[in-house]
Amino acid sequence: MQLTELINKTCLIGLSYFNTRGELLKQAQYAGTVIAVDRENGITVRLHPLDGVHQSAPHNTIATDTDKAANFILPASLSGWYRAPSGQYRDPDRRLLIENPDFLVTWDIHQTRENTAEGQHEWWEWLPRTTPPVVK
């Protein structure tokens, strides 16, 4: 698969954040549509607003509110991208429901420095999960 094949595809993004000791800090889930790809700048996903049902193409009924939509940029690696089985995916914490996304995307994000001073840049290393996610 090529990066350009992701344009206009929907995805469910799962992120796990870890501290420098490898302990899980938090997990986050987002859904959206790929709007741009660039080998250097990454894969730009227009996030779906919350409190709605979002369906993937070919239904072409993706609910978007451009005033509230945010962009999320993922690394340009395709290692963490997997074809999604058909079905409904729900994240009750964020009130998000997406039907039949094209891809499931999973990344582990590791903190690389402890005790960063207030106002200083925090450093994180993004590692794609190379094992396909299990859908229940």
**Integer tally of domains:** 1
- What's the assembly state of these chains? single chain
Describe the global form. Answer: globular
- What is the number of beta strands? 10
Low-confidence stretches: 53-67
Structural class, judged by helices and strands? mainly beta
Largest sheet, described in full?
A: 7 strands, mixed
Mean pLDDT: 82
Percent in helix: under 10%
Terminal Cα separation, in Å? Answer: 26 Å
Please write out the topology.
Elements: E1 10-18, E2 24-38, E3 42-47, E4 52-55, E5 71-74, E6 81-83, E7 88-91, E8 96-99, E9 103-111, E10 124-128
Parallel strand pairs: 1-9, 4-8
Antiparallel strand pairs: 1-2, 2-3, 3-5, 6-9, 7-8, 9-10
Molecular structure report:
The chain is an all-beta fold. The chain has one domain (3-128). It has no helices and ten strands. The chain has strands at 10-18, 24-38, 42-47, 52-55, 71-74, 81-83, 88-91, 96-99, 103-111, 124-128. The strands form two sheets. Strands 1, 2, 3, 5, 6, 9 and 10 form a seven-stranded mixed beta sheet that branches. 19% of the residues are buried. Mean pLDDT is 82; it is low at 53-67.
Summed up:
This protein has about 140 residues and is mainly beta. It is built from no helices and ten strands.
